[in-house]
Amino acid sequence: MSKRLVVFDNIGIAFDGRVLLSNIDMSISEGEIVTLIGPNGSGKSTLIRTLLGLQEATTGEIVRHKTLRIGYMPQKLHIDPTLPLTVKHFLALVRGVDKQQILPTLEKLGIAHLLHSQVHVLSGGETQRVLLARALLNRPNLLVLDEPVQGVDVNGQVELYNLIESIRNELHCGVLMVSHDLHLVMAKTDTVVCINQHVCCSGSPQHVTGHPAYQALFGVPGADESIAIYAHQHDHVHDEHGSILSDDDDAHAHCKHH
Amino acid sequence: MLDLLLRALLGGLGVAAVAGPLGAFVVWRRMAYFGDTLAHSALLGVALGFLLDINLNLAIVVLCVGLALVLVTLQKKHIIATDTLLGILAHSALSLGLVAVSFLDNIRIDLMAYLFGDLLAINQADVYWIYGGGLAVITLLVTFWKPLLAVTVNEELAKVEGYPVEAIRLLLMLLVALVIAVAMKIVGVLLITSLMIIPAATARKLSKTPVQMASFASLIGCLSVCGGLWASYRWDTPTGPSVVVCAALLFLMAYTLPFKRIR
């Protein structure tokens, strides 16, 4: 059986008497992808922050394996515009980083060309990858990703999730992901934990979507037709400027660029 | 006369060299008002130094460092918004200093020199203070450069990666306090922060990396000191304000002349 990296034991958090989280029990093992879902204000981020040591739990305990090493990818990155900083210098700030690893890591994430870019001019998707690179450079056995695909378009989301899965397969690390968008998360996840102040339900994605507690929070799958998912047939590649890299006219068959 | 000017130049350059990199951190972390608060309280340090009959430079350093610690503690308690808190402390300390100075009947203090600085009045001991303090600040800055920068860029990431965030933040405040105490003689309590932030802001336009910005800030500060001192000698203008005017001119030049915007 895989090593259990983190065990949340009856975690409860309260602020000024207001209960944010109670009786949270869950665990993450090596090689496991756990997705934490819940509506806004359900305490997802609070739980993550407690794991990261940015916040104290009021009750209960987080048991960390002695080898635990976390790579954290925050939701977004704000760097003061008065601070000139290239991606390379940003990544060199990782504590105890092996600078030789910076370029290979960027190559793995497909953003080697950003090495000398200023962090302020990156797009949403590029920023996410740079943040992922920073998390990886910390040589983690647990990746903690807070809304990793926020502000990334659907294709980008699929790519990013594929990337995360391939990283898991390569490093055999645990992955704890926070999300409020389910449709794309489900496929790659081993365990989904649905929380709303407490653990509503948890298990495999199929199990969770069928669970009454999940349906009470997010609705019955397919019941709400107000949002349709557009299946984009992306059969071509863009270069850095967004132009289509293909001399084949058929590249436009499925997708019109105006 | 030459001796006097040389000493003034030496002292000024020492202060500008240290104020540059620290100023960069002040700009990055938006601590300008914090610097002002410490600077304003320095006058109280002078008064206390006279009252208790201890070395003035030492009194200023102790008071600035003490106030920095008080600020950090109060800030953590979230009693009141930080800028309000700083405003209260800055002006209370300045007023308290002015009141305290007025009690010193038997000592005549050149208030103008403390408020606006007098580069030409620095003596040999001051130069030692500047270079001793400056060396200490630079050594700490170089030693802790990476953690200081990591905490400035993103405190949460730094904390998760195991940097001692609280300690580093405190270190930075103490460094600012030390620089202010040392620089006070040169540009005075009302103008110190300008010597920290104007060269740093000018350097931003020319830099691609934090190290570049810190070094350029030092250089630009030194240029301002030279220019200000020269103007002061040439036209008999007050030295402190002349240095600041010179720094402001360089800032204007950097932002109006058609340099390529560095991205």
CATH class of chain B: Mainly Alpha
Low-confidence stretches of chain B: none
Radius of gyration of chain A: 20 Å
Structural class of chain A: alpha/beta
Number of strands of chain A: 9
CATH superfamily of chain B: ABC transporter involved in vitamin B12 uptake, BtuC
What is the strand arrangement across the widest sheet of chain A? 5-6-7-3-8-9
Report the CATH architecture of chain A: 3-Layer(aba) Sandwich
Largest interface: A-B, 24 and 29 residues
User: How much of the residues of chain B is beta strand, in percent?
Assistant: under 5%
The rounded distance between the terminal residues' Cα atoms of chain B is 46 Å
Shape of chain B: globular
Report the CATH architecture of chain B: Orthogonal Bundle
Helix content of chain A: 25-40%
State the helicity of chain B in percent bands.
over 70%
User: What's the story with the biggest beta sheet of chain A?
Assistant: 6 strands, mixed
Proportion of strand residues of chain A: 15-25%
What report would you give on this structure?
The complex is a heterodimer of chains A (258) and B (263). The N and C termini of chain A lie far apart (53 Å). Chain A has a six-stranded mixed beta sheet, sandwiched between helices. Chain A is an alpha/beta fold and 258 residues long. In chain A, α5 links the parallel β6 and β7. Chain A has one domain (4-221): Rossmann fold (3-Layer(aba) Sandwich). Chain A has seven helices and nine strands, in the order βββαββαααβαβββαα. Chain B is mostly helical and 263 residues long. Chain B has a single domain, classed as ABC transporter involved in vitamin B12 uptake, BtuC, CATH 1.10.3470.10. Chain B is 81% helix and 0% strand. Chain B contains twelve helices and no strands. Chain B starts with a helix and ends in a 7-residue tail after the last helix. The mean pLDDT of chain B is 87. Chains A and B meet through loops of A and α7, α8 and α11 of B.
